[in-house]
Specification:
This protein is mainly β and about 260 residues long.
Length: about 260
């Protein structure tokens, strides 16, 4: 995802073949994606009204939540986000994804094999019609390009936000993780452990790849009534569509009582 400049945000805040779906011990896990349909999820695609699933972008086939563009002529910056119906604060999120096929014509070069999940996002009904990305903290998913160059996944991007990284306020748009590069159509397991505004940890295939804290609204490009230093302690979860097809076979959450000191 590129750097986002939001001119107006009404910030009514944040409160190969198909494989078998993996299973985990139940221990408090809730499946946000039921493997059958998009129950509990609402799309918001740039230039389209909330709830309009333009081009059938988000769909469920063979137990997979798919992001597809076969009903588009060109991408034309029609960035999409699929929001889960309720916000979370302290939680462990588990997602398994893979990139497939080719990027849609009209997508940006940086969006090849690029997707992600938004954490602590603004409510979908507060997004403007033509807003590209919700104000949020993004755990970015990238696929390798099979060109021998490293391309980590589980990175951080910050549309309308900043974080504290290694004790210092981090204001650039994206921060790479220490993950390996995953090329091709292999499944990747991404975990995000979120302790409100205190600490967020990204884990890829069982390895911690990035940690940061104190997500907050940035002071650039936000509606004048937004408080620049307001810490984000809760918000919505949203999956992305950014012009490259991607599959999700697991989206699970487990709430965490309390938060670390």
């Amino acid at each position: 995802m590129q750097k986002l400049w939001i001119s107006s945000v009404f910030f009514i805040l944040f409160t190969g073949g198909t494989l078998a779906r993996p299973t985990l011990a139940n221990d408090g896990w809730i499946d946000l994606f039921n493997g059958k349909d998009l129950s509990g999820w609402t799309p918001k695609i740039t230039g389209h009204a909330l709830g309009e699933n333009f081009g059938n972008t988000f769909r469920v086939e063979d137990g997979l939540l798919e992001v597809r563009y076969d009903n588009y002529e060109r991408f034309d910056n029609q960035f999409g986000h699929l929001f889960y119906r309720e916000p979370f604060s302290n939680y462990h999120l588990l997602i398994e994804y893979r990139f497939v096929g080719e990027q849609l014509e009209g997508g940006a070069d940086w969006a090849i094999r690029n997707s992600g999940v938004m954490l602590h996002s603004q409510a979908p009904e507060t997004m403007t019609l033509n807003q590209d990305f919700p104000v949020s903290v993004e755990a970015q998913f990238l696929g390798g390009l099979s060109d021998g160059k490293p391309r980590p996944t589980g990175n951080l991007c910050t549309p309308g936000t900043d974080v504290v990284y290694r004790g210092t306020l981090f204001t650039p748009h994206c921060l790479p993780s220490s993950s390996k590069t995953f090329a091709g159509d292999q499944w990747v397991r991404a975990e995000m452990i979120v302790h409100g505004s205190k600490k967020i940890t990204h884990i890829v295939n069982g390895e911690i790849v990035l940690e940061y804290s104190e997500p907050r609204l940035s002071d650039g490009g936000l509606h004048q009534q937004a408080t620049a230093l307001a810490l984000l302690s809760s918000g919505f979860i949203a999956l992305q569509s950014e012009s490259h097809p991607v599959d999700f076979r697991m989206v699970r959450v487990r709430e965490i009582p309390g938060s670390p000191q």
